[in-house]
Amino acid sequence: MRACIQQRFHQLPHTLFSFLHPPRIHAYTVANVENPSAPSREDYAYANVFLWNTMIRKQAENGDISRDPPLLYYVQGLRTGLRPNGQTFMYLLKALVCGKNVNEGEEVHASVVRTGFASSEFVSGALLGFYVANGFIGQARQVFDEMPQPGLVLWTLMIRAYVCLTLPGEALELFRTMRGVGVMPDMVAVATVVSASGLLGDLGVAKTIHCFIEKSGVEVDAFVSSTLINTYGECGSLTDAYRFFRETAMKNTVVWNTMIHQSLEHNNLELGKQLFDSMPERDVASWNSMIRGFANVGQYEEALALFHDMEISVFRPNTLTLLSTLSACASHGALEAGAWIHSYVNNNDLNRDGSLDSSLIDMYSKCGDIAKAIQIFEESRRRDLFTWTSIICGLAMHGHGKKALCYFSEMNESQVSPDEVTMVGVLSACAHAGLIEQGRRYFQSMEKVFGLVPKIEHYGCMVDLLGRMGCLKEAYDLIMGMPMEANEIIWGSFLSACRVYNNVELGEVAARRLLELNPRDPWGRVMLSNIYAEEAKYDRSMGLRKEIKEKGLKKSPGCSSIEVNGSVHGFLVEDNSHPCYNEINSMLEKIEKLMN
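Above: the chain's sequence. Below: its structure in token form.
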């Protein structure tokens, strides 16, 4: 960077800093003597520093700081005889934070000390912020400790720095020190300390801080109120959060939304809906919280119903609303509702930047319309990681493994690096297409080429691939060599492969592991019983069936769903709970008679 600054310095136009040239200042001074009403030398010096600072600030805001570093303008100003003030350093440090230029920041720090501005609380605050933004909490604390008498602003900044770097213990310890020297917190400092107790996750500490607030007489505004509610929620006590919510007088929309959010985070949909219905004023965030809350717990029909209610209200859905709603459609298999939302997005021009493309691709893929998903991808102008991942996973899900791998090759050619989810899609595509050599190669390339450590999902895909291709010994060795314990999904996939290829020995191993993980699930016993039956080991097969019956083990009933007029109806085996059960049975009987 230093070499870059020197090179750019010599490339600057000669007239760039001509307004700072000393002869001009001298001419203005002579004019001042001849005309007492003319500005003084000090006036022009001040004006020049102001212009100097403005150039640094504007360069940081509008320029490419790697091409024209703001430090270059600072050095040029010094060479023309200007003396920096506090604003000069604040603008410089702000610019260097944006560019992550740590070495240059340390040079500015040295200049701050040399020019005597280290005692300025505002400049020290800028230095502290610079070091924190770059992750150097030790240097930030050194700046703080070197202040002889830091004011409340600097105390708050340092406490907040610890909170931002998820060091709540250090933040609370510094707050205790602050109170020990007699510095009284304001609302901002209090909210920061409350956040620290939430990060710590200690309910006792949270209650202690709350007690201090009440006794100290610090004004509790809406921001502090919402922070306290969040903190109690993060500490696992929805009861305390709701008690404080009822007691506090500061209940603006943000506070209501915070309470709703915590209710939903604790899976208390009833309380969340009750609060939502009781709100004196709602905003878009209120609707988004409820839609996302229902979608997260699998109540997709309620989420979609809320979206339709929002659509006819005075509030216009935003990107977050649509992301949650499309997710609900995808998870619920609601193709008709998803297509309607897609139409709504297009009619209202809500996807101008392409931010919804990946969600639309995911929705159409999961709802069965892979052709529409491909069309959206091909028309998308936003080919980012999420868009590529969505189409690759969608194609893999539909068994189009080779096409998914073609897209993955295009993704690599586009210089877009995959993440863990992308690689799950790639390996799944190999499994569905039976591409065992490619699967092995992609699995090995995760760490060597892309720097991704395989997780249990990737091992599961490889076990599935090897099992489908009959490489049971290799699959078993892979399971036993995993850096983590195999779960039910992996052992279940392996047992299914043993069933297909009638491998009794490995099937018994897989079934035994499944029983260890979930003794009440009869599926492993059923599969092993079928393997025994295929090998004519009827005594063992019947023994397992008898064991299932004696222990009263039952498989989870199968489920199917159908979408009619925008609503998804689910049916379980031997389920008579549907409100139209009699009408459905009557229609089935009529169809059966017609077929006979």
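Residues 1-47 have pLDDT under 50 and may be disordered.
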